[in-house]
Amino acid sequence: MKRRDFLQQSSMLSLGTFLLPNFSFTTGEEQKYGVQLYSFRDEMAMDAMGTLEKIASIGIKEIESARSSKGHYYGLTPADMKKACDDLGMRLTSGHVALDNNFDKTMVEAVASGQSYLICSSMPSEGQTVDNYKKVAEEFNKAGEKCKKLGLKFGYHNHEYEFESDNGQVLYDVLMDNTDPDLVHMELDLGWVIVAGKNPLDYFKKYPGRFPLWHLKDMNMDKKESTEFGKGGLDIKMMLRNKKASGVKHIFIEQEEYASTPLESMKHNMQFLKSI
């Protein structure tokens, strides 16, 4: 090839890369990891903007908000939260909320923030019984219908107690069997699943494609608390190998206890993910 032709082709390739920044020569799409902001709960309460900047600086591309003493957006308006994320090259994808009397307002705020998912963060009513979980499932279906009308997706985030049994039935399975997959989008917290003595892979197999969101959380199995990746009982590499079966689209890292600081722990977690 003549040098002139080589330079012309190289220029066209560079232009194509510039115009198509997401194009990749690799065989698979790189996973973009997010973080549940509860991991930075104290920092977000003190300095939301500064903390978001630090989170963006370590390669986080998506965030999931959580309820705080300053509201769902840490004292920012939903629009300001959206702009802050846009400016930092991140996306506010999801938010943990309560299914309560303020849920209509919560939905309106979510639309203004530009997020896609509203995730109920814990059981809206007490009672570890099959009947209660069926009742809750119906509440979730109704909430899902309301969200769908506004262009949102409703979901639920588990802890360990949902995997207790009543009358020979695992309560989480009751919830899965009685919710409409088109209306209730499950966020599976992998760490709490293993603390409950269950295997997430079994749920991927039993309910394929039902888990568009994950909380990727390693757990110290003796203390029953979260820890840095690679230090606990979750086989993270195995989970990621099976993410297609689960239907996951958004993976949020969550860590509630730390060896030093939330930022240092999150740096460790991101480096761990790169290493595998």
Strand content: 15-25%
By secondary-structure content and strand pairing, the structural class works out as alpha/beta
What is the number of E strands?
12
Report the CATH superfamily: Divalent-metal-dependent TIM barrel enzymes
The largest sheet, given as strand count, sense and whether it forms a barrel, is:
8 strands, parallel, barrel
Number of helices: 12
Helix-strand sequence = HEHHEHEHEHEEEHEHHEEEHHEH
State mean pLDDT (0 to 100 scale).
92
In which range does the helix fraction lie?
40-55%
Within the CATH hierarchy, at the fold level, what is the topology? Answer: TIM Barrel
Low-confidence stretches: 10-28
Termini distance? 40 Å
Output the CATH class name: Alpha Beta
Shape: globular
Instruction: Enumerate the strands of the largest sheet in spatial order, edge to edge or round the barrel.
Output: 1-2-3-4-5-8-9-12
Radius of gyration: 20 Å
**CATH architecture heading:** Alpha-Beta Barrel
Number of domains: 1
Search tags:
single chain; 276 residues; alpha/beta; 8-stranded parallel barrel; two-stranded antiparallel ribbon; 12 strands; 17% strand
Q: Helices, strands, pairings?
A:
Blueprint: H1 3-19, E1 33-36, H2 41-46, H3 48-57, E2 62-65, H4 78-87, E3 91-97, H5 103-113, E4 117-120, H6 130-149, E5 153-157, E6 165-166, E7 169-170, H7 171-177, E8 184-189, H8 190-195, H9 200-206, E9 213-216, E10 218-220, E11 225-227, H10 236-241, H11 243-246, E12 250-253, H12 262-275
Parallel strand pairs: 1-2, 1-12, 2-3, 3-4, 4-5, 5-8, 8-9, 9-12
Antiparallel strand pairs: 6-7, 10-11
